[in-house]
Amino acid sequence: MEKAFNKFAGMVARASGRPLAFALCLLSVILWAISGPLLHYSETWQLVINTGTTIVTFLMVFLIQNTQNRDGAAIQAKLDELILSGHAKNDFIGIEHLTEAEVERFRAMCLKAKAEAGLRAGVRKQHATPNPSASKNSA
């Protein structure tokens, strides 16, 4: 059942993101608006659009969330594989499961390491040996 739901959710998410889906929704709202004067703007007329949009929105939230969860998990798995296969720190694997405060500590650690790397790069530039041809040109 899970595979069927995932397949269905993916199909609906792809279809709902297409211009045709937007055009159909826009057409529905236009037809509903045009029918207002014909139905004397009755409570039933209002109820139709309110109920229809509420139901569609309610169902779409779950379908799109399912699709985003799967996409996010796939991206995390790919990133984990890249970390494992490269020279990156393996400490970062699985950090998406940490609390917000724990992730923030990792971010602060990365910013500190980046700043230190920038300082080391600046020091290396200052201590670089001068270009001998540059001193000939200045004389």
Give a brief rundown of this model.
With 139 residues, this protein is mainly alpha-helical. It has helices at 2-16, 19-38, 43-85, 100-126, 132-138.
Overview features:
0% strand; 139 residues; 2 domains
Structural class: mainly alpha
**Through-space gap between termini:** 81 Å
Kindly state the percentage of residues in helix.
over 70%
- The average pLDDT value, as a whole number, equals 85
Estimate the global geometry from the Cα principal axes: elongated
Q: DSSP helix count? A: 5
Beta-strand residue percentage: under 5%
Number of extended strands = 0
| Largest sheet descriptor | none
Instruction: Round the Cα radius of gyration to an integer and report it.
Output: 29 Å
Order of helices and strands: HHHHH
Estimate nothing, just give the exact number of structural domains. Answer: 2
Low-confidence stretches: none
Give an overview in words:
- By secondary structure, the chain is mainly alpha-helical.
- It has two domains: 1-88, no CATH class; 94-127.
- 81% of the residues lie in helices and 0% in strands.
- It has five helices and no strands.
- It has helices spanning 2-16, 19-38, 43-85, 100-126, 132-138.
- It is elongated.
- The mean pLDDT is 85.
Question: What is this structure's SSE topology?
Answer:
Layout: H1 2-16, H2 19-38, H3 43-85, H4 100-126, H5 132-138
Helix pairs in contact: 1-3
